[in-house]
Amino acid sequence: MTVRPVTDAPPRQPEPKAPRENRLRALDGLRLIAALMVAAYHYGGRGGEVTHAWGRSAAHQFPTLHSYFAYGCLGVQVFFVISGFVICMSGWGRSLQSFFASRASRLLPAYWAAILIVTAVFALPAVTYEALSPSDTLVNLTMLQQPLGVDRILGVCWTLWAEVRFYALFALCVVLPGASRRRVVMFCAGWTLAAAIAQGARSELLNIVVMPEYAPFFIGGMGLYLVHRDRHDVYAWGIVAVSFLIGQHYAVRSLWNAADPNAFAHRSSLGIVLVVAFGFGAVAAIALGRLSWANWRWLTVAGALTYPFYLVHEHLGWVVIRALHTGLGLPSGTTFGLTVASMLLLARLLNRYVEKPLTPRLRTALGKQW
């Protein structure tokens, strides 16, 4: 007879197995919705350079819609929630080298191509927008122009700097020691606390590292991936709830402009909260399988177009708007639609002729043993 040692420790419960990771096509569709929200903001929901493209304020071009387009900037926060979900899912079970190779090969080919295309277009004599110097252009290829204080070629690349910092934190704290539910929960809790401390301490260094304004959205996305693994995970739901509460606070604080008489459009605090809730709610519905019926193949294509579209749509959109509206005299609505369509077509070309051939090659090269 075998005598087993007596222990007071309860038997260790195995972690729930990860669900079968079929392609979440609804997530691809949500990516495209977020990108179109940002495009609507850049084309008709703000002032600045797009005013010169239209010939006068976009508020005159879209007397009613401009106030709704102004909420489109919150598409970035929706992107961050999606990113938290996707990075946690894709980083699970990967080595550090594999994770780095995957992220770098996903971001860099289209980014480099967008930098070169925008620089070339802005250098044309017929285009009135000023191109950056050769030195600044070269720095932009590193994706580190913002911390180095160099002017940006792509206006949207500030969000990539936030993404890169998130990848670094996740890689060091989760991927390097090995992803597990407990480690992700501790990482989310620690990052939330660190972000609160950074905000209270008013430390510039801590703000750069832990990004208090954007951390809740990445953290909320990671919490929703844990929900995707186990919908009964109380800790995961707690992470999501706290992240939403903090995230809506930062969104309202930075985007509510009711007190500014010169604001292009006045976003209401309720409207901001509702858009943030839409982002969390949509990803939650996908995590819980509520949108599994949205399984059309074209959503995969839409998801593939989102990143290159996001990169090129703003600055090149100005050029197209100016050519169609000011140059050809097309109506505002027609110009808006054709500009979005032309940027989607360019995104399709970038995906077909840049991302598809270069991404696997770069991933293979970076994936070789150090």
Key terms for this structure?
370 residues; mainly alpha; globular; disordered N terminus
Tell me about this structure.
With 370 residues, the chain is mainly α. It is built from 15 helices and no strands. The protein is globular.
**Total strands:** 0
Reported for the largest beta sheet, the result is: none
Give the DSSP E fraction (strand runs of 2 or more residues): under 5%
Principal-axis shape? globular
Instruction: Extract low-pLDDT stretches.
Output: 1-20
Radius of gyration: 22 Å
Task: Give the termini distance in whole angstroms.
Answer: 51 Å
**Structural class, from secondary structure content?**
mainly alpha
Order of secondary-structure elements: HHHHHHHHHHHHHHH
Helix content estimate? 55-70%
Describe, in short, the structure shown:
With 370 residues, the chain is an all-alpha fold. Helices cover 69% and strands 0% of the residues. The protein has helices at residues 25-44, 49-54, 58-61, 65-69, 75-91, 96-122, 134-140, 157-175, 181-201, 204-210, 215-229, 234-255, 269-287, 297-327, 332-366.
Annotate the secondary structure layout:
Layout: H1 25-44, H2 49-54, H3 58-61, H4 65-69, H5 75-91, H6 96-122, H7 134-140, H8 157-175, H9 181-201, H10 204-210, H11 215-229, H12 234-255, H13 269-287, H14 297-327, H15 332-366
Helix pairs in contact: 1-5, 1-14, 5-8, 5-11, 5-13, 6-8, 6-14, 6-15, 9-10, 9-11, 9-12, 11-12, 11-13, 12-13, 14-15
